[in-house]
TrEMBL record:
GO terms for molecular function: oxidoreductase activity. The keyword Oxidoreductase applies. Residues 38-388 form the FAD dependent oxidoreductase domain. This is Gamma-glutamylputrescine oxidase. One of its GO terms (cellular component) is cytoplasm. It holds the Pfam family DAO. Keywords: Oxidoreductase.
């Protein structure tokens, strides 16, 4: 099998900077023949591996299958930003579901943040955590919303770690004049996602979970109180199953596929910016206010990791670097000719309301996904919460089950074209 640096994922384009810097990445054998387990897990990302670890630690037999290599999906290729709360600001969510539920979901997300940091420390996973995040406005009209966000977070949600940045401070902290104001969050940070993923897989395997790579699920069925997962290498028969495929659900399970849609996101890594110390001098991660969000950070040896795309599509550009460099230059004109050493992409699972999809899709089978670009914390925690639900320790996963997540309109044939049109429209609105 190809080395870590040269391994090209068959489900995601490009070789990532994360691959080049993650160190040893163990391989796991493919399934060879049929077997039984208490719980079958489909998907070797954060959700599946956290569930596998917590179940195996409690003595539950677990068989986890991954279609490619663990880390080939979004868990090993994402922007690495933890964020705070849910995908929506808490005051926005409060308008839709009320204060009590909004507060409960905010608190759950804070618990997810603590869990992730504590988990990495407990298990000695060096995920290169770096503190700080800046959320910045690309329109001057957003100023009042950003000011109120810091006040509401502190006064109503018990989160005192936000501070409003006026235009001058925003430009100084970014080293760019492109944005009008922002919010600084000192209660969160950003990580090396593949290092976390590799460490998590190791911990799950050491706890007794059976992990099988290069084993794609072909079908999942429920019959006679048992769940059967069919693969090209045998079947797994279990008492229950977790579908944790996120943006790679494909045609495996129709309910999930109608609610979780894959979109493409792309990231480029520049050479170290030694000659540009004005770029993000504080080392924070950044996310902007566009619907088609741009996210970036200076990380590792001082290179800029920049993510985004002009419009969401399911296709891959012929030259990822060209698209990323153009967007970098809009924010940092001095970097218009910067060398990009690595460029890669992957599929992100989104839902209509940009909230996680958690549902029992058939008896004994729970599907979890659709983190909508806010999954580093939430996916890890949802895996833990799934295990706790199986073990009868917690019902917190019900907070996500109770969310109203409608299916994408248009049916199987028209979902993708309609999504493309809708998101392209929002991308156009970002420009004005």
């Amino acid at each position: 099998m190809a080395s870590l640096e040269m391994w090209q994922s068959p489900i995601a384009p490009g070789l990532s900077w994360y691959q080049a810097t993650a160190g040893e990445r163990p391989t796991y054998a493919a399934l060879d023949g049929s077997r039984t387990a208490d719980v079958a897990i489909i998907g070797g990302g954060y959700t599946g591996l956290q569930a596998a670890y917590h179940l195996a630690k409690a003595g539950v037999s677990v068989a986890l299958i991954e279609a490619c290599r663990v880390g080939d999906g979004a868990s090993g290729r994402n922007g690495g930003q933890l964020g705070t709360g849910q995908r929506w600001w808490p005051e926005e969510l409060e308008e839709k579901i009320g204060y009590e539920r909004s507060k409960a979901l905010f608190d759950l997300a804070e618990a997810a943040k603590r869990h992730l940091i504590d988990f990495s420390r407990e298990h000695q996973i060096e995920m290169d955590y770096a503190p700080g995040q800046l959320n910045v406005a690309h329109k001057a009209s957003y100023r009042r919303d950003y000011q109120e966000n810091t006040e509401i977070a502190a006064e109503r949600y018990g989160y005192p770690h936000l501070s409003f940045m006026d235009e001058k401070e925003t430009q100084e902290r970014l080293g760019s004049k492109r944005f009008y104001c922002g919010v600084r969050d000192v209660g969160t940070g950003h990580i090396h996602p593949l290092k976390l993923l590799i460490g998590l897989a190791r911990v799950a395997a050491n706890a007794g979970a059976d992990i099988f790579e290069m084993t794609r699920a072909k079908a999942i069925r429920q019959n006679g109180g048992k769940v059967t997962v069919e693969t090209q290498r045998g079947t797994i028969t279990a008492s229950r199953a977790l579908i944790a495929c996120d943006g790679h659900i494909d045609g495996l399970e129709p309910v999930t596929a109608s609610h979780v849609m894959p979109i493409r996101s792309f990231i480029g890594a520049t050479v170290p910016l030694d000659r540009h110390p004005q770029v993000l001098p504080g080392g924070e991660a950044v996310a902007d206010s566009r619907f088609v969000v741009r996210y970036f950070r200076k990380f590792g040896d001082g290179r800029l990791l920049f993510g985004g795309r002009e419009a969401y599509t399911s296709d891959n550009p012929k030259d990822i670097s060209q698209h990323i460099r153009r967007q970098i230059a809009e924010i940092y004109p001095a970097l218009r000719d910067v060398e990009i050493t690595h460029a890669w992409g992957g599929s992100v699972g989104i839902t209509m309301p940009r909230q996680p999809f958690v549902r029992e899709v058939m008896p004994g089978v729970i599907s979890i996904g659709g983190y909508s670009g806010h999954g580093v914390m939430l996916s890890n925690y949802c895996g833990k919460l799934y295990a706790e639900a199986v073990l009868g320790k917690s019902s917190d996963l019900d907070l996500f089950k109770s969310l109203d997540i409608p299916a994408f309109p248009g049916g199987q044939r028209m979902r993708a074209p309609l999504l493309f049109l809708a998101l392209s429209w929002f991308a156009l609105r970002d420009k004005f």
